[in-house]
Design goal:
Number of strands: 13
Radius of gyration: 18 Å
Shape: elongated
Helix content: 10-25%
Largest sheet: 11 strands, antiparallel
Structural class: mainly beta
Amino acid sequence: MKKVVTMLLCMTVCGAALFAQDGGRSLFSVGGGLALMPGFKLETVRGYGEQNSSEFGAGINVFFDAKYAEANIDLIFANAKGKDSDKGMDSTNLLIGIVGKYPISLAERFAFFPYVGIDYRIALGGSYEGTKIDKPGDQFNAMSLLFGLGVDYDITNALYFRGEVGLGVTFNTKKEEDTKDFTDNFKIKIPIKLAVGYRL
């Protein structure tokens, strides 16, 4: 986990150094807003069949932008439930991510950008039906590969609105890795972000 966080921080610094200046004008910006994180999991237990579950998370997002790179820190409160069960797991998570993006201007105040990147989910705490989970990291920590599209609308020269929607393919947690000999997992999430940014 430490290696992942270090890698993300190094990529953020490098992106800022490379792209913070364009024609003598600073393009580095910061911002924040609302983050929504619905997700779905298809688990196949060999010999028993499929077990579907869904998760919904909501929280806050802070981003650091350097034109062609964007780093994100999200604090997400999530609840996951099985398809035919009222039992659920609650978790508090920190997501650290970085994406590469290519902004395309469509009008004087409007631009969009496709992006691709990764994020890493770090569980700060978790519970199952009100009972604390001793090692939430084993249950929830995971890396995701991200694809998506964002739009920027300039409110002023410095202030802008940003909206993003993406698709994340999530890799196995430690617990899922420990049971991969008899279970198969496919997990996706749909990160949605609405934020306000400020160009420095």
